[in-house]
Amino acid sequence: MSRPLHRGFSGGGRLSGDFHDFLEDSQMKFKAEKEDFDKNRLSPNHRCSWNPFHFMFTYTTSSPSKQSVHENGFIVPDTFSPVSSRKRYKLTLFLLKFSLFVIVFLALTGSFWWTLSLTAASRNQTFRGSYRRLQEQLVSDFWDIGELSLGASRTKETKETDFCPLECENHIPCFNISENLESGLTEGQQQDRHCGPTSKQNCLVLAPSGYKIPHRWPTGRDVIWIDNVKINAQEVLSSGSLTKRMMLLDDDQISFSFASSMIDDSIEDYSHQIAEMIGLRNESYLVQAGVRTVLDIGCGFGSLGAHFFQNHLLTMCIANYESSGSQVEITLERGLPAMVASFTAKKLPFPSLSFDMVHSAWDGIAWNHKDGIHLIEVDRVLRPGGYFVWTSSVANTRASGRKKDNSNTGDIVRNFAKDLCWDLLSQQDKTVVWKKSSNKDCHASRNHDPSVCKVGHDVESPYYHPLEACIGGTHSRRWIPIDERPKWPSRATLSSKELAVHGVPFDDLIEDDLNWKPAVRNYWSLLSPLIFSDHPKRPGIEDPIPPYNMVRNVLDMNAHFGGFNSALLGAGKSVWVMNVVPTSGPNHLPLILDRGFVGVLHDWCEAFPTYPRTYDLVHAEGFLSLETSKRRRCSMLDVFFEMDRLLRPEGWVILRDTSSLIEAARTITTRLKWEARVVEIESNSDEKLLVCQKPLIRRRSNPS
């Protein structure tokens, strides 16, 4: 695991079978993408399915001139007639491409056999130093040959062809509502996530023309730049009174106040009301009652989560994809946990028994429809003894008694909650609070629907499986009431008995946590001179207190046991971590959630369900090794384009992996225009760090 680091830089790297496979896969994939591009490049549904090498196949259609520029940078004279010129052009193009193909083929073949001979020779320690230098040069040569074969120019004009079109500026691949409607999806399913060949987005998403680096935490929680999100001043001013009370427009900023109204009362009063309905003095006692993680469905702009955060509660906001005025985008811009998620037809990507509280206020979900299948999904992710808080105009049957439909809706929800063995704790005004039963035998004593899921259907990896009308989680060994679990922060270190449920030895978790502590200190020592460049901080001085904290949203692409998250909190960093467990590896997400962290399952060959520019730091330890060990349907280049989409301008990437994979990854970062450095790791010559920063590149504003 992590060991002490020292600052240093090295060039080149080691060529391994993984990198050779990467080059071979990329060549094959390039041919297939060319065919797809030629077929679909004029289709409006493919505007965000950008191919970074599209300029290779784009021909000019303008009128003939004295000379035209060939797509590979050659100047072709045009002194003949259009017909003969076109024939000569095609003939010249064919000869150039054929010659280039032969050169590249011979170079790659010769380099491959050269590598094999060097590998055999490397066993002799006498040639170790020269072998390493030859390897470093070979990696560089391979990349230069690949660039030449693709005809990529190093000029600024050619680089700009890698940028995505304007339509992709706030788009999330896999959430194409118009395409879903065209395919016949209705009844809300058009809001669901559908990943296919057209959802790939291999281009660099530019920041909006007015984009500014977000305010530092905690200032950024209460004030955001309006140009950073897909909402304009007119939309704020023309919104209803409810939204106006939540957001205040001030020149080019939007400010959020905890005194702003979410319902009829302020956020403080509302959270205080929830605590009282549970039987507590106020919201500060929720942690003592066993509540740590909250799932907020349709969270508005994260105001409840922002308030809960002060009381050591971690709130995950989920909401549908929105092309403008997004709840998720604005919540993330404020530095609060959020992700796009719709459970109209599919399960949420969380295992059963994941959250201590589920909150739903004015989210527009028809809880009484489809035989209560959405309430069944809430029950699945809710821990035994957990709470479901519902605020709606139809929740209070007495207040809505004049409207028969509203009254029926409230009664249907109450009856269904009773069928799920939820206890009605309290009702005040438009808010109702239920408590999920801690006794799983309650379900066995019933003889009516919904029935309990069979063992084979009650899975811990529900990666966008279809919704099921059966009660899940009852077969899980993790069925432990929240009031019997350790209270936060003790929950972060699970006991040996709890770890046995996950099949993880206690010593493994302790060792993992111990290894991550020095790693986080060393990460911070590498980043802090640049992060805090405008603060009089010197090496050895403690981190400045807020607001000097540029890192807030952290994405861990391969979270393992959540040790990186634990070490960051243990070091007192004011961050939250989205712990992502790849579907290609072991599923430790239930363990991570039981520790009181937040996370999600994800297939990294698909787009992550969030808007562009939403994370300050992307971290991955062992991720490259994990992905290259599998036969994947995507290349590493695809994954790096997705990382760039998620990363905020001036954000950071830290990758730790084998030396050969790190060196191969560094060559990819040049394609993304990242500033990158390779850092040696003391006492471990087989691993390296790759530390990168994404530059701020704004889209040019249209001339008036």
UniProtKB/TrEMBL annotation:
GO cellular component: cytoplasm; endomembrane system; membrane
GO molecular function, one term: methyltransferase activity
Keyword terms of this UniProt record: Glycoprotein, Membrane, Methyltransferase, Signal-anchor, Transferase, Transmembrane, Transmembrane helix
Organism name: Helianthus annuus
Annotated localization: Endomembrane system; Membrane
Name this protein carries in UniProt: Methyltransferase
EC number: 2.1.1.-
Transmembrane region(s): 94-116
Membrane association type: Single-pass membrane protein; Single-pass type II membrane protein
